[in-house]
Amino acid sequence: MQEWDWVESLVCGSPIQFKETWLRLSNGELWRLCCESDKEFLSELYDRLITSHQGFVERLGWWLREIGLPTQIASEIFCQMKSLLEDFLKEGGDWLKYVDQTEGEEEIPKVTLQGLGVKGRDGFVVTLRLDLREGVDKKTRLIPHPESLLLPQDSEFKATLVKVEQWLQQQPFSPVGVDITWRVARSDGYPLDALRGNSLGGLFAVGIWLLLNDLPPDPSITITAALSDNGKLAPVSGLVEKVRAAINFACPRITRLLVAKDQDLSVVSNLTHLPQDFFQQVATVDEGIDAFLTQVTPFMKLRESVANMFDHFNLSVLRKVVGWDCYQEPSVTLFPDGQKSLSLTDWLRDCLKGEQKHWLLVARSGVGKTTALRYIAHLLSSQREYKHLLPVFLEAEKWLSIWDELQRISPDPPLAEIL
Do residues 126 and 249 make contact, with C-beta atoms less than 8 angstroms apart? Predict the structure, then answer.
């Protein structure tokens, strides 16, 4: 279906056409069109929606009824979509502040975590991304990114966002005058029909703490727990399906799942092939944070030590002070047939296309270093614009003797990858 057909599908298409189009637009396609500055299409979409306001709301109400949500929120979603399109179409709209940084701009602080969801009898993995942006007033706000703004929310999910915001306001580390934007998407590429339930509450809270304290998440650990009063965690439903998804579909694989202290684990006692010590029960958000820090502390010490060495050491052999970047995790989509589609972060592509640089690639086991190196090797061997780059790979255990290693390689390698 072409993009211009989407307008017809929304206002006068068949139920199947409406469903397919709405799922695409509400799962980030409208945001993509905005970022691509397709104002002609967006203007047509806006005009047709305004003129067929009541018909669109009725169609959306039908879809909400199909997925078990109250039809009353159709008008609310319509107003959000209308405001979003109006903002897109005016010069210097507020939507511009949600665009990821462009070349030369400072990187937006962000955290990306794996979460777990359930639809019917099937579990799935989601990606939760949190960004830290400059706010418009002194109050810290938790707001949806335009990419996830149109996803319908059930009452439990809305209540969870309220509890997360209340918890944040009570924390001594809560900053002033910032916006924390969130977006949620399925990791396998399939669309979400809605945001449901309370099981992402604990993940939101832990992720916000990591974001505000500039700590990297460990992608092999996640939490499924509801957030209650005073930072306490509560049990959630669908644990069996979520565990199966964590084991079979998470990439990188989840090896530690945090659950509420009162979560009944007897329902998963018959599941096999679970990693050793897979479950860890925690009573509060603080305990969940401690569990995450236990996993990332070795990596943090390594990152800080290497950063200090780079900050104070001039490599005489290379005749320059070497900068460093910290690679954490490629984004991997797992398709039903088992195939994986790798989409590396933008900075990797930008750095490969840029001037000569030396990189330090450091991350814990399982987050994608080898995959990244294979991707780099493919680019170096297959694309002409990268022919001038020379990869150099060292073992992780040798990082303390990196300076001796560098003296034994080419006098001035354009690209040094140290693992």
Answer: no
pLDDT band, very low/low/confident/very high, at 135 (cuts 50, 70, 90): confident
Could you tell me the sign of the dihedral formed by the alpha carbons of 317, 321, 326, 332, in that order? negative
- Local confidence band at 380 (pLDDT 50, 70, 90 cut-offs): low
In contact, 263 and 243? CB cutoff 8 Å: no
What are the distances in angstroms from CA 271 to CA 242, 243, 278? 12, 9, 11
Distance of CA 300 to the CA centre of its chain: 20
Residue ranges of the alpha helices (H) in 269-396? 285-312, 346-353, 369-382
Quick one: pLDDT at residue 387?
57
- Are 43 and 76 found together in one domain? yes
Q: Write out the DSSP string of 365-405.
A: TTSSHHHHHHHHHHHHHH-GGGTT----EE-GGGGGGHHHH
Tell me which H or E stretch contains 74. Answer: helix 73-89
| Coil vs helix vs strand at 284 | strand
Torsion 365-224-289-164 (CA) sign? positive
Residue 159: domain span: 110-296
Q: Are residues 123 and 155 in the same domain?
A: yes
| Bond prior to 146 in cis (omega within 30° of 0) | no
DSSP state of 25: I
Phi, psi of 72 (to 5 degrees): -65, -25
Write down which residue in 270, 296, 322 finishes a domain: 296
pTM: 0.73
pLDDT tens digit sequence for 346-364:
445 555 555 444 455 544 4
Q: What is the tally of structural domains in the chain?
A: 3
